[in-house]
Design a protein that fits this description.
This protein is an alpha+beta fold. It has a five-stranded mixed beta barrel. The protein has a two-stranded antiparallel ribbon with strand order 1-2. It has helices at 2-15, 35-39, 84-95, 131-137, 151-163, 176-183, and strands spanning 25-27, 30-32, 43-54, 57-62, 65-71, 74-75, 99-106, 114-120, 129-130, 142-143. It is built from six helices and ten strands, in the order αββαββββαβββαβαα.
Amino acid sequence: MKTIALLLLVLCLASCGHTRGTRVSTIQGEAVDEPWLLMVGGDAVSAKVIGCHDGDTIKVLLRGKPTSIRLEGIDAPELGQPYGRNSREALASMVLGREVVIRKSRTPDRYGRTIGRVFILPSISGMTAEVNLKMIRQGLAWYFLAGHKDMELAEAEQDARTARIGLWADRRPTPPWVWRKIKR
C-alpha cells in the first residue's frame, strides 16, 4: 500500500511539472532538487551504488565516501547457500551503477552499516520502486522482522511462498540466520 501511494505521489508531482532540477526543500540542511527524496520520507539521501556485497547489502558513494547500506527488513541467503548468488546478482542488476534514494531508518547495525529502505530513482516513465520489497517479491530474500513490523514486506513474502517463487521453490529453504549458526 505504501508503495502504491508513493507511486501515485511521483506521478502527481511529475504531472504538476516538478522535475529534476526544481528546488523543492532541504534535507539535513542541504538543498534538495529531487522531489522523490521528500516522498520517501524519513532521513532520505540519494547516492550512486558502486557495489553489491550480497543480496541485502550494497555499497554506495555517499558525499564522496564509500558507505555500506544494509537493506532494512530483509535477510538474503548467504553467498555459500542455495540462492545466495542469485540474490546478489538480482540486486546488482537492479541497482549497480544507478542512483538510488536511501531512507535511513535507524542507527547503524553492529557492523557499522547504515540500515535503510532503498528506492530506485524514477525513470523516464516516472515510476520508482522499492528494492527491499522487490527482493522479497521475487523470492530472493526473507522478511526479517528485526525490531519492526512491516505488513507489506510480510505479505510479499507470503505471496512469494504461495507462488513458490525463487528460493521458495525449495520445499524447506534454510533461512540465512539458521545457515549462519550452522556454519559457525
